[in-house]
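Hi everyone,

Forwarding the result from last night's run.
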Amino acid sequence: MEAEQLRRDIVSACRRLAQSTLGSGTSGNISARDLETGLVGLSPSAMDYAAITPEDVVLMTLQGDTVDARRRPSSEWLMHLHCYRCRPDIQALVHTHSPAATAVAVLGRPLPAVHYMLALSGNHEIPLAPYHRFGSEALAQAAVEAMGEGRACLLANHGVLAGGDSIRAAWTLAEQIEYCADVYLRASAAGEPVLLSKAEMREVEAHFGSYTPQGD
């Protein structure tokens, strides 16, 4: 993938984020890795995503060196780069402050198996990373540790981190986490949610082996 295409893809995702229910204002950030060059494109910090252009996307190395930028990278650039260094299978990351998933994170608990779509994450639940200040190295390490071999985690009192082999896959996972978090909160308000068993989730994971998210 050429660097310019990488930038265009991130711009499209940022604009979509601005129009979605997954974020508000300049909250959240998106990145993707170019396997040919090893560079990572990151959304810029504190910029209106509706106005972002490809030139605003920051290009960095996995070691944190800036290659091309006219803006500052997202405040969570450490978290993105640390994840890519530890997880060669993840090629894109979507970080959101989506309300339902963030509410679960504020409760200080993982998102349990209330719906089979959570199997897209590669885990039977969405684990919770402990709270650390945004943009810190401690948060970067905690997020990757919480993800384990899966592709997503909640960030305590903060939001969600979702990864995938493409921006589309990471976006789809972030959307499904938000949907399942909303279902969990609604069900919890009415009674005790019935959770899927590990065996049931493993069965879903087996069927998801050939599942490809559809969409933009």
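The CA atoms of residues 116 and 201 lie 6 Å apart.

Cheers,
N.
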